[in-house]
Amino acid sequence: TAMRAVDLAGRSDPRRLELRLVRATVRWKRGDYAGAATDLEQLIEARPNDVEARCLLGEVYFAMQRLDDAWTQFQRALEIDPQSTWAAAGLGQLKQQG
Prior knowledge:
81% helix; single chain
């Protein structure tokens, strides 16, 4: 139902970037990592300083075992917002892997 709501909202205003974040979150939770990554990469292209999008992309890359890419996203998010607990936690999780 979440994806249906996103699709319906997107029909009324397809330019709303927030919908990409929601759609990417649903795709990530469903295991559609490639689809989530595409949505997030497009969102970050439009809004490069979006900390939440970068952290979610870090999580998606982590799930895809693209650990260097995940590190880059969490690190960039922390540079944008040094108080980001999500970015710090993501980097911590990657350090444990490594």
